[in-house]
Amino acid sequence: MSDRLVVITPWFPTPEEPGHGSFVAASVAAISHLRGESIPVVQLRSVPIAEFTTVTVTRLEHEYGPLIRIDVPAEPMQARLLTALAMRKALADNMPDEVRDATVVHVHTGMPTGIAVVPLLREDQRVVMTEHASYLQRVFV
């Protein structure tokens, strides 16, 4: 039986923002090609608090599988821990089956995404992290 993979990221292209997270989409495309299957992506999308009304979960399709976009109230310049906690709450309250059923969870960034996601996972779920901030080596030592 093949591992069930899900990618969780703050960035992913959408019809409204086609260039946002194109590097994540390229990674998903490569993994999908290698595995020969679709890869579900969960985007924890920060929405400025002034524009935020409620957590919205939107299901779309991207070229390589389902895209589940969960809007999270977060300001661009707020402390990353506050963003991580907001992401954790939004994901915990709106846990997609794709995350619940995954055996491998691939998160993009340790902070805030990894900090948000890892405490919500089961002990038997494996985590792979792609880091985009070199300073975090000092944080996770």
Overview of this protein structure:
The protein starts with a strand and ends with a helix. Helices cover 31% and strands 26% of the residues. The protein has a 6-stranded mixed sheet. The protein is globular, with a radius of gyration of 14 Å. The mean pLDDT is 92. The protein has helices spanning 22-35, 80-93, 97-100, 110-117, 136-139; strands at 5-9, 41-47, 57-62, 65-73, 104-108, 126-130. The chain is built from 5 helices and 6 strands; from the N terminus they run βαβββααβαβα. The chain has 141 residues and is α/β, with parallel strands linked by helices.
Which helices and strands appear, and what pairs or packs with what?
Elements: E1 5-9, H1 22-35, E2 41-47, E3 57-62, E4 65-73, H2 80-93, H3 97-100, E5 104-108, H4 110-117, E6 126-130, H5 136-139
Strand order in space, largest sheet:
3-4-2-1-5-6
User: What fraction of residues sit in β-strands?
Assistant: 25-35%
- The helix tally amounts to 5
**Secondary-structure element order, as H and E?**
EHEEEHHEHEH
Gyration radius (Cα, Å) is 14 Å
Q: Total strand count, please?
A: 6
Mean pLDDT: 92
